[in-house]
């Protein structure tokens, strides 16, 4: 695949009162990557992806997506352009069925009920939830709810899928299954994930960005990041 | 994912309502006519409260907009009844769009208060301009506004049968339109906004616009009911714009089952019959209504059809 820039930020900044959560970040994401963003608690990871998805407005800087300046675009319009976001805390429609959850996502880009139903089915198969389509989403296990949320992201057919701590609270078996799902997703979409579990990061990521106190501390392939003394000092050292 | 069982029920209910007029006569026909019109009001309310999850305390305003829009057009404009009817609906549509734009800046309790304030302003306006509206004395529509011609046939609204069938026809149109709206993709979006607005936004939807659509549809249908009520019974008065109307429509919807297609009809039927009976027994019937409201909120928050839906019939929605 040719190296095409999918997403780029320049001088992206967000302050909360006296705290600068994201500080003049220049960030580039290539099409087809699985990029992990790591960093200690409070490093600004969630704020940063919030700025990308449009859930949070920046104080300064620009966000370019697919060659277009989306800095002022509201979140729902960014989703339509192809940026899907899955929440850190599971965020589904518990009272609706799995099928309906996926249909709401799919009808964001499709008009006909038959197409919507087919897309819902396809997304369920992609994460292995096809047997649960008629079930109430709230009745699913936690791990399945997380998969449903990823499937809702997939039903959007995004160019970029942002996963905010997707494996938090999952068992080891569920994490294995999750890795398979993400690898499959990555064949058609670029993936940006915030992740605390270093095993997951090392297994999945093609590149890693380390955030610390709102700035990019280091960036590069997983092996190089793991060896970086500054990273070990700021993050890996304190975590293990 | 259309809901065929619900559609079959819709047709059966409409057929039943058409047939029942050959069985009953006298006062029950009048009562049922009223129930059908008020059920349309509740169905409009249900679009916003039941399907989209926004509780308004000001829907008397939109009922009154239809009532006065149609009534004043007939009274002063002397226009034919179908045109007066359309004028009432248009008034409610415009007013609900404008009020929706303003009120939807707020949520939950503030939204209830803001809608209530708008409705109170509307009610006070009907009193203030009593030289035109007749205030709480109201206006009785003149003889020319008690009949109209349809396809060359003269239809007199003094006939109970004519009134019943017109009310039923309007009820049927609204019911079928709401079936199409709520059981398809649009209805799923309303439910998505009700269940989880933030998730819905992050799936690419402008939640504010979906709410505004629901609000406007809801207010317009309430106006349909108001316009129909005024023209059918030939009377418009400010008592219809009172807070009590807003509470009653909330109560009808709650009793029947918010977010179910037939909840408003069931709730309106049960409550109107109950209020009829109770007010014959005691002038303090509102106390009984209040107690019922408390009981419902505590033990049956989903209403009659909502409870049945959750226990036995998930398609009943």
From TrEMBL, chain A:
It comes from the Bacteria. InterPro entries: AAA+_ATPase (IPR003593), ABC_AA/LPS_Transport (IPR051120), ABC_transporter-like_ATP-bd (IPR003439), BCA_ABC_TP_C (IPR032823), P-loop_NTPase (IPR027417). Pfam families: ABC_tran, BCA_ABC_TP_C. GO terms for cellular component: plasma membrane. This is ABC transporter ATP-binding protein. It comes from Paenirhodobacter populi. Residues 7-238 form the ABC transporter domain. GO terms for molecular function: ATP binding; ATP hydrolysis activity. Keywords: ATP-binding, Nucleotide-binding, Transport.
UniProtKB/TrEMBL annotation, chain B:
One of its GO terms (molecular function) is branched-chain amino acid transmembrane transporter activity. This is Branched-chain amino acid ABC transporter permease. CDD domains: TM_PBP1_LivM_like. Its main location: membrane. The chain crosses the membrane at residues 29-48, 60-77, 83-104, 111-132, 162-181, 212-237, 249-275, 282-300. Keywords: Cell membrane, Membrane, Transmembrane, Transmembrane helix. The keyword Ion transport does not apply. InterPro entries: ABC_transp_permease, LivM-like. It is found in: Cell membrane. It comes from the Bacteria. The keyword Membrane applies. GO terms for cellular component: plasma membrane. It is a multi-pass membrane protein.
